[in-house]
Structures are given as C-alpha cells and as structure tokens.
Design a protein that fits this description.
Blueprint (H helix, E strand, L loop, with lengths): L1 E3 L43 E9 L2 E4 L2 E6 L10 E7 L5 E5 L12 E7 L2 E2 L9 E8 L4 E3 L14 E3 L1 H11 L3 E6 L2 E9 L22 H12 E2 L4 E2 L17 H15 L12 E2 L3 H8 L15 H10 L14 E2 L7 H8 L19 E4 L25 E7 L5 E6 L14 E6 L5 E4 L9 E6 L4 E6 L6 E6 L5 E3 L8 E6 L5 E5 L6 E4 L1 E3 L4 E3 L3 E3 L9 E7 L5 E6 L9 E5 L28 E3 L12 E5 L3 E6 L2 E8 L2 E9 L10 E6 L4 E6 L7 E6 L4 E6 L28 E6 L5 E5 L4 E5 L20
Parallel strand pairs: 2-11
Antiparallel strand pairs: 1-10, 2-3, 2-6, 3-8, 4-5, 4-7, 7-9, 12-13, 14-15, 16-17, 18-47, 19-20, 20-21, 21-22, 23-24, 24-25, 25-26, 27-28, 28-29, 29-32, 30-31, 33-34, 34-35, 35-36, 37-38, 38-39, 39-40, 41-42, 42-43, 43-44, 45-46, 46-47
Helix pairs in contact: 1-2, 1-3, 1-5, 3-4, 3-6, 4-6
C-alpha cells in the first residue's frame, strides 16, 4: 500500500509508481470499479484507495456520482483520465475500492475528484449540481510498497467536497478546465483539466539552461491547496502557510463563504424547473445563479451555464456581470428594473450555511489575495546588508511589478507617491522579491542614489534590472533575483534612461529621452552570478523628440520592438506607438540564434509610427503598450484601448474601444499587459482613488469592466462592500500602478495609496513572463 510522506496540508499525490495498471471500461461515465460508498470513507482500509464526504452546505448529498481524475499533458482543457468512480451513500460518504489493475496516476500529472448530481434530504436528484475538490501532484508525497493484492491502497485524510472547494477549484484551475457532455452521460460526463506537456511543472528554457519550477498547471494546483483546506472544506486565512498578514497574503474568506452560500441555494434544490437564459430565469436558485453568471453578450462561444461548476468558471472569468439591470426581486426579464446582477447574485445567498460571508455585495467577483502594507520587510538580510531604517523596507508605495520565468514577483517600491518622472516626491527606492506562493525572497536597502527608477524587468538568467532616469547620474542596475544584491551596473553616459527590456538571450535594451538617438543594446555574457554587459550598441531608432519620452518598451515574437512615447516627458502633441523592426532577413524563431538587428528609425511621418487617440500635450494621462500574438499590439490612451494592426514593417490604428473610467470620467491607466488570449490589462491609477484593473477582450473587442476584488481585514479601514467618503465601493486597490500576469493566469497588481500587492486569482489567461515575450502572451 502507499506510504504517506509528511504533508502539512492536503495530500498532494496518490498512487504513484504503480508497477502494473490497466483500464477497466464500463458503460456510460464510469471507469474502474463501481461500488456504493461506505459509512466510513477515510482511506487506510485493506482495499480503500481514498474516501471523502460530499456536502451541500450543512447537508450530505446522497446518490452523487464520484469520479477520480488525473490531468492530461495534451493541452489546455484536453480530455482528462477518469480513473475510478463510485456513488455517495445517505451520509454523503464515499470510498473508492480499486483492484490492482487500475490506471496509475502518471508522474508529472495531478489528481482531483468531481461529484455530479445527487440529492439532499428527501428531494429528487439535482441534475444541475456539479462540485469538485483538488488533490494535487500525483507523485509528490506517496510511494507504493508494490506488494499485496491492493498495491494501490491510499492512506491519507478524508477529502471534504462542498461549494467552497468548488468555488476555489473554478478560480484557480478554470484556465485549464473544460466540461464535456456526451450522449452516454447526459447532461454532464467529464471534468477535464489539462495543459501542454511543458506547462505542468518544469520546462527547459533553451539556451539559458534554466528550469521553471512553477509552470502553469503546477502553480494553479498550488494556488488551490494554498487557498482551501481540502480535508475540512474550509478556506485558509493566509497564503504561504502564514498566521498573520505579515507572514502571508490575506485570503478573502468572507467572499469565499458568500460564494458558497450562493452556490448552496442551487445545490440544495432539485435544480432548474423551467426555461433559463442570460436574460431571464425560472426564479429557482439554480435558474437565478445561471442567469446572473452568464458571460457578457458578444463573448465568442459563450452560453448560459447549466451546472454549478460552470457558473463558477464563468464568474471567475467574467467577474463584472454585464447583464446588470433586473427587477427588484431579480426574477423575470433583464432590463426591466434597476437591480444589478451583482446585487442579484448576492440576494441568492439567503441562507448563511457558511457563516462569515460578506453582508453586503462586493464591488465585483474577482478573488483578491492581498499582501498588505510593509509585507516583505527584511530585517535580517546580509546580502545586501540591511543597515538603513527601517532596514530593508516592505511594501510602502509599490509602483511597478515584474514577474520572472518561475512566477516569482518583484516589486519596485518607493517611500512616497511619485507621480512625475524623475520621481520628485520619493527619496528612495528599493526592490522586493516574493515567490508565487507568497514567501518573501529579499528586500533591498533604501537606495537614495537611484530614486528615479520607473520600470523594472527580469531576464532568463535570474536577474532583475532597472534604469535610473536622472540626468546627472544615469545608471542601469542589475540585481540578483535570489538575493537582491547588485551584480552589475552597465556603463551608461547618456541622459535619462526610462524604458528597459531584455530579449530571450538576456541582452538589455534601453530607451531614453532628450536625445535624437535613444535606443541602446547591452550584450550579455558571463554567468548569472557574474553577468557582463558589453559597451552599448547604438541604433538610430527613434527620432520622435517632440512626442516625449519612452514609457514602455516591449518585444514581439520577431524580436521587433514596440515603444510607447508619452508627451508627458517633455514632449508635445499626441502620444505615439512605434514599431521598431530588427531588419532580420528571416522571421525570428524562439530560442534560435539571436539576430544582429539594425532597428529602423521611427518618425512621425513614417508608416511605423501611429498616434494614439486621446488627449494631446503634456496633460496626457493614460499610456502603455503590449504586443499580441496576432501580429499587432494593444495601446492605451485617455479614451480607451486601441488595437494596432501590423503589415510588414508598418502599423495602423484599427479601432479604439472606450473603457470605463473609475475617477471623473478620465482614464489614469499606466502600462499594458497582454495575456494568453490576447486580452489587455491596465491598472487605472484612479488619481489616488479606489480603483482597479481595466480589462479589454481584444478578440471580441469588448470592454469587460474594471476588476477590483474584495478585501476584509480588521487591521485596515478598507472593508469590501462598504462605501468610502467618495462614494466608491471599497477594494484593496487605491491608485493601482501596474500589472503582471503569471503562468496560472493570476494578475498581480501594485497599488500605491493602499501600499498593497494584490493577486487576482485566475482572472487572466496563463502567460509565462519572460518566456512569453517571443510568443506574446502565450505560454511556451
């Protein structure tokens, strides 16, 4: 039987290393042996693989079909492997009894359990109920003795599956999940979770010889097991195994309990009783849930959900409901009243089956883990030495965020609001490193010599870099991504370096302003611990001196550069987007030999520069650009997001979509990020007010609202669901400055006024930072 290794949380692996296995095919959904659940569901019996309890709120669910799955390496949402199935008894208990010739849980894959149908009390079975619970990696914590008639016996804690584990599964694993229906399994057969083979846990990174430890699916399962205790069915309070906000991110348990109460109104019923759509419902708990979580009109391939898990998947992906006017009682047709879909969802939770849920509606349904003020404070580091006061600071005024190929998070931190560049208000900067699970890596000392860094980035050689835009002492800093120590300061003797980017070969490209020629390449060599940068190669790349300085500099899949020029930096007129082609004779292939570029000049009269619609002159507020995987880019201006199309070396503005402004009808957005589905994200600084992340679906050309998230924490006055003095619903973001997207689809947001780092769980499509620069937004 399996011997369980030490684990402080839910078991994260099972039946690994099985010597013999086969697949027993049964009719319909089932595979493996089918047996009624016992009254004692815990693992550890003579032939018990694992066991669990299934509840709808406080009520056991009987007669539900339990299926154990393992993930696949065939692609996102590809068909998973159904290992075994059983049914729950009258107490909601289940146990899986398996012979020796079952399908083994493959090394590198993950396991999870889903429960379909079943009934609570004396009600008829609910065909709209679908719940699930994550387990974790197949091979992490378990081994097989390989002896006895039941070599696959699992000894471990009982799984507790309910609405809370289902909501967390949808938010954390939704980017990798599809639900399929077949004639043999009406209306639902399979819960599929999968990712490309090299997007599971580790992958090589070509010539850089590094291996990510947090590739998409592995990171997503780690998120799930960090947020929820699958043995109790209850959310944890903090990430990183923390016991307070100083040791982990604050988990929004009040919102999770509310989601559970909303779901249980459907689970503890007989399901939909009449017709149901995104614009009307049958007034049942399930009918309301499905109507209010229907994706926005115009989203490709969307439809009204028909089960509880799909409703959570849709809510996680579209957390700002756009069908937003219903009658007071939320029944009947949409558009015939003034009650919002968010309020209607809140109203479904009439029962407090899960005590502690929000008592007023959240600003939206984004799931926000929040790292609060001073998080990451380092008082003990010796490399570099923390000799300043308060030693090496934690979150104070976070201004920019960058992620590396392992989903580690790096924050550019100030001591004060730095609204102008060079930063006139701040007296120091420092860099804070945090793992994707929330564990502090380092915090550098207060740096008064480089207070004008406005953007940081990472490379594939475990470095973080930034440029100090001070005319009197312009510098480039290269830090260790593991200790924060400054490893190199490439020689730079030109004015005001602003935007910095690294190519897949760790070469640095720096753009400046107050120059006619302002693009320079620093060729990388040496080792990660002793990097060497050659004297800069200068390109006559940009001469838009009247348009101001470079705000964002990013590579596309051909190692061509997109640059956003902002007139706020000493310029005039409209902001411009420039396409700087590298003039390579052939299309750049990721991880091939680097080209020897000769970047083309960019002029206002040329066809590789385009004016971005919006305000003109020094008053321009919104600025930023990022390439898409469809041969173009997204740029933001004061009126909204502009799609840029490319043909050869020319670009043109295709269309501009207005985005909702959080403050005074004006967009205060800075920087743009693009995810694996070519959606654009930009933090609306909100002019110091409660704000969030503007979201744009470039595929369907839809503005999807502003993601804010929910936050309840007794040590702060920012409480989700309440309204501040300015009339805005409180959220963990006030004056958010920048966003970064990781391989699980989490959006990381730095917010100055709330001194916070917010992780919006699963809100974007998976993206590998650094690795994705050659296929914009797409995990490699």
């Amino acid at each position: 039987m399996f011997q369980r290794k030490s684990s402080s949380l839910a078991f994260s692996g099972l039946f690994a290393g099985v010597a013999t296995f086969g697949l027993l095919l049964l009719s319909g959904c089932g595979v493996g042996s089918l047996a009624a659940g016992s009254d004692s569901p815990v693992g550890g019996g003579t032939n018990g693989l694992m066991g669990g309890i299934l509840h709808g709120g406080p009520n056991p669910i009987s007669g539900a079909t339990i299926t154990l799955y393992t993930t696949t390496s065939s692609g996102y949402g590809a068909t998973a492997t159904a290992v075994a199935t059983t049914v729950t008894n009258t107490n909601g208990a289940w146990s899986l009894t398996l012979p020796t010739n079952i399908v083994a849980c493959p090394s590198g894959e993950y396991a999870y359990v889903a429960a379909y149908g079943g009934a609570t009390g004396a009600q008829a079975a609910n065909a709209n109920s679908l719940l699930m619970v994550p387990i974790g990696a197949c091979s992490s914590n378990y081994t097989s003795t390989g002896s006895g008639p039941y070599v696959n016996t699992y000894i471990g804690p009982t799984l507790f599956m309910n609405e809370l584990t289902t909501a967390i599964s949808a938010y954390t694993l939704g980017n990798f999940m599809t639900l399929t229906t077949t004639s043999a399994c009406t209306p639902l057969c399979t819960v599929n979770i999968g990712a490309p083979a090299n997007n599971h846990g580790t992958a090589s990174v070509g010539s850089s010889s590094v291996a990510p430890t947090a590739a998409g699916l592995g990171h997503a399962f780690a998120n799930a097991l960090s947020l929820i205790n699958v043995n109790t069915g209850q959310p944890n309070a903090y990430t990183n195994g923390g016991s307070s906000a100083s040791t982990g991110g604050v988990i929004p348990d009040a919102e999770i309990y509310l989601l559970g109460n909303i779901l249980q109104a459907c689970v503890n019923s007989t399901g939909v009783t009449g017709s149901n759509s995104g614009t009307s419902n049958d007034s049942s708990g399930c009918g309301k849930l499905f109507s209010f979580t229907t994706p926005p009109s115009g989203v490709s391939g969307s439809s009204t959900p028909t089960n509880t898990l799909q409703a959570m998947l849709d809510l996680a992906k579209y957390p700002v409901p756009t069908v937003n006017t219903w009658p007071t009682n939320c029944n009947g047709a949409s558009g015939s009243g003034t009650t919002t879909a968010t309020q209607c969802l809140f109203n479904i939770a009439t029962s407090q089956a899960y005590p502690g849920g929000l008592t007023s509606p959240p600003p939206d349904w984004a799931l926000a883990v929040v790292y609060t003020s001073s998080y990451g404070l380092n008082t003990t580091s010796t490399t570099p030495a923390c000799t300043t006061s308060p030693n090496c600071p934690g979150l104070t005024y976070p201004f920019y965020v960058a992620l590396d190929y392992q989903d580690n998070v790096y924050v550019l931190n100030y001591d004060a609001n730095a609204s102008t560049l060079p930063q006139s208000a701040s007296t120091w900067t420092n860099i804070i490193g945090i793992t994707n699970g929330g564990a502090p890596i380092f915090a550098t000392p207060e740096d008064t010599s480089h207070k004008a860094i406005s953007i940081i980035g990472t490379d594939l050689a475990q470095h973080v870099f930034g440029a100090n835009a001070v005319a009197s002492s312009p510098t480039i800093q290269v830090y260790s991504a593991t200790s924060g120590a400054i490893l190199a300061t490439p020689s730079y003797n030109n004015s005001e370096p602003l935007a910095v980017a690294a190519d897949p070969f760790n070469n640095l490209y720096v753009a400046t302003y107050i120059e006619t020629v302002n693009l320079r390449k620093f060729a990388y060599s040496g080792t990660p611990t002793s990097p060497v940068y050659a004297a800069p190669t200068t390109y006559s790349a940009i001469s838009l001196t009247t348009a101001g300085g470079p705000y964002q500099l990013v590579f596309d899949s051909n190692l061509d550069l997109y640059e956003y020029l902002d007139p706020a930096y000493g310029g005039s007129g409209s902001p411009y987007a420039c396409l700087l082609t590298n003039q390579s004779s052939s299309t750049y292939t990721y991880m091939s030999a680097a080209p020897s570029p000769a970047y083309t000049n960019c002029t206002t009269g040329g066809n590789n520069a385009v004016a971005i619609p919006g305000n003109t002159g020094s008053g321009v507020i919104a600025a930023g650009i990022a390439p898409t995987s469809t041969n173009g880019a997204l740029a933001i201006g004061s009126t909204g997001m502009t799609k840029l199309t490319r043909s050869g070396s020319t670009i043109a503005a295709a269309s501009t979509t207005a985005l909702p402004a959080v403050t005074g009808g004006i967009l205060y957005n800075r920087y743009v990020s693009v995810d694996g589905k070519d959606w654009g994200y930009s933090a609306d600084g909100g002019n110091g007010q409660v704000s969030g992340v503007s979201v744009f679906d470039s595929t369907d050309t839809l503005a999807l609202g502003t993601y804010k998230g929910c936050f309840v924490y007794t040590a702060t006055s920012i409480t989700c669901g309440t309204v501040n003095s300015a009339g805005a619903t409180q959220a963990p973001m006030a004056s958010p400055r920048a966003t970064g997207i990781d391989s699980s689809g989490d959006i990381w947001v730095v917010s100055g006024n709330t001194q916070s780092l917010t992780e919006l769980i699963g809100a974007a499509a998976p993206t590998w930072p650094g690795l994705s620069m050659a296929k914009a937004g797409l995990p490699q």
